[in-house]
Amino acid sequence: MVIVMIDKINILNKKVIFVGGKGGVGKSTSAAAIALAAKNIGKKVLLVSTDPAHNLGDLFHTKLKGEPKKVEGNLFVMEINSEKENDRYIASVKKNLEGQVRSSMIEEVHRQIDMAKTTPGADEAALFDRITSLILEELDRFDLLIFDTAPTGHTLRLLSLPEMMGVWMDGMLERRRKTNENYMQLINDGEPVDDPIFKTLQARRDKFSQVRKVLLNGEMTGFLFVLNPERLPIQEGKRGIDTLKQHGIPVLGIVVNKILPDEVDGIFFQKRKIQQLSYLKEIDKLFTGIPQVRLELLDEDISTPLHLKKVSKKWEELIC
Ligand SMILES: Nc1ncnc2c1ncn2[C@@H]1O[C@H](COP(=O)(O)OP(=O)(O)OP(=O)(O)O)[C@@H](O)[C@H]1O
Ligand SMILES: [Mg+2]
Question: Is the CB of residue 149 below 6 angstroms from any atom belonging to ligand 1?
């Protein structure tokens, strides 16, 4: 593989990296190759796939689960599945309510919770909850967490969740606090009430604000955009980077993947190369100031551990 290196991307001193971009541009292969490269350089790495259509297992030729699995030395890989996370989340909510709800009510409460499970966005929220826990719990165990994400829109919504959930939860906490105050004055002889629901909400609120701090901290966290020299991936990259900027999430760099090699010949490829050249110029213009690396299209898919090894060797030169 020939790499057309332009800049090095600052990855090794980060703690959390998200790899995003349009469908099929090369997010999973880049995330996996970077993870392997960082491991080879001496980092202890956890690579997490959050994409419902996983293929990291194929790439490492191993069966992955919802918990970190050691695949090679200090490289651990896992896949999280939003539906399973939703099941898990709902089970934990039910468990938390045990002993807090009158037994005559429990059936109705469980029915309501089961309904909440099927509302739009519930899988996403549960997925985000897991990502949040992973970031907060695994940061100490690993030097670097790399998230291979689903196509852009989904990921950006996910990253803006802590902000939205924060506002929503503040509202809930405030209402709960007022109820408790009334209760305290009217029934509890002015004594403060011990409210487990308030405590649960507060703990969740704290968890989200903690993760938000990590996401917005440019020293620790960054987003890597993968795109191809084609119109739609470029547009999506531009939109994505603008949105990340709005949310204050730092962008580490862009990976321009699948560039046609110089040695391609024939009128068909010559024509495509000319078009590609103008897209590359556009990329330079649109993403000025953002570190950029360029990788060529290989003559075969990157689908085996051996292919991955080759690409990751190149990545060892591209990250610092
Ligand atoms: N530089 C490259 N040369 C040749 N093939 C590549 C290159 N980069 C990626 N591919 C191939 O392109 C396909 C898509 O790559 P990959 O799965 O990494 O993309 P993705 O962005 O993760 O896709 P999805 O959005 O479906 O998750 C795969 O078959 C992969 O082997
Ligand atoms: Mg993928």
Answer: no
